[in-house]
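Before a colleague's protein record goes any further, I have to sign it off. I want your independent view on whether this chain really folds as the C-alpha cells say. The record follows directly below this note.
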Amino acid sequence: MPEPALTIASLIRDPRLQQACSRWLVGGRCRMVWVDPTSNPLVELEQRREEFDAVLLEQGALSPEDCRAFGDLGLLMPAVVIGGVGGQIELHQAEVHLPSDQLEQLSYSLDAAVSRYLREGLAGSESSPAGQSTETPDRWKLANRLKGRVGFVGVFYKRDPARFLRNLSEQEREELIHSLERTYRDLLLSYFRDPAAANQALESFVNTAFFSDLPITKTVEIHMNLIDGFSKQLKLEGHKNDFLQDYRLALLDVMAHLCEMYRRSIPADAPLTGLPVQASGQPTMA
C-alpha cells in the first residue's frame, strides 16, 4: 500500500512560482493546497489545521505580524521558505530555505523540513491562544501524525531510493546537479561576507545531497569546478586569486555537516559492520 500523501499548505502569491512548485512535486508523496496569503490565511489554516502537514511559504508573502502569529496560534509545522538566502527566519528555526531558481530540490527540502521539525521537537513548543486550554487536541498532535504517515525513521533513516540521484532519469539527474551547483555557488559567494546566508545555503545543499544520496566525489567536483571558474574569471579581470584557497573551509564545512547527517541516519542499535558501502564511501541506507 502506498504511503499517504503529505498535504502542504501553499502560501505563494506568484502564480508562476506556484506552478513551478507544483511541477517539482508531481508524482511525489505531497499534495499542495493553495491558501491565499492575501486573504487572512491564518484563519483558514487554523480552521483546517488537522488537514495540513507542512507549509510552503513564499518569502515576504506574510507580514512579520502574521509570521509571529503562527506560533501564537499553535500553527507551527514543517516549513520550506521559497526565496533568497539572506539568513532571516520567517516562521521558526527549523524551517528550510530554498531559492526560487533551485526548485528542483523542493521534494528533498520538504523531507529535510519534516525531519528537522521532528528532531527539534517544535510540536512541543506550540502555544495556545490566551484563555484556552494548553492541551493540544489529539487530532492536532502534528508530530504524532507525521510519524504515523511518513515516520521519523521513514523520513530520516530510510530515504526514498527512487529519488536517489543514480536512480533518476538522465534529464532529472542533470537538472538536480545544475540546481545543486547554483546552491553551492550561493554558499561560496556568501561564505565570508554573510555567515547567516551562507549557513542557509549550506543547509540547503547538504539536505539535498543527503536525501538524494549525492556521492562525496560529486560534491568535491562541484566545489573544484566553481573555484576553477572563479579563478579564471579573476585572471581575466587582472585580479589575484590566491585567496580562493581559503574556500577549502567551505568544502570542509559541507563535509562535516554531511557526516553529521549520515551519523544521525544510523539507528543507535544498528551494527555498523552490516551496512553496505557504496563507491563514494557513504553507507547505503536504502
In short: The beta strands are 6-11, 30-34, 54-58, 79-82, 96-98. Residues 12 and 133 are 32 Å apart (CA to CA). The chain is about 45% helix and 10% strand. The chain has a mean pLDDT of 80.
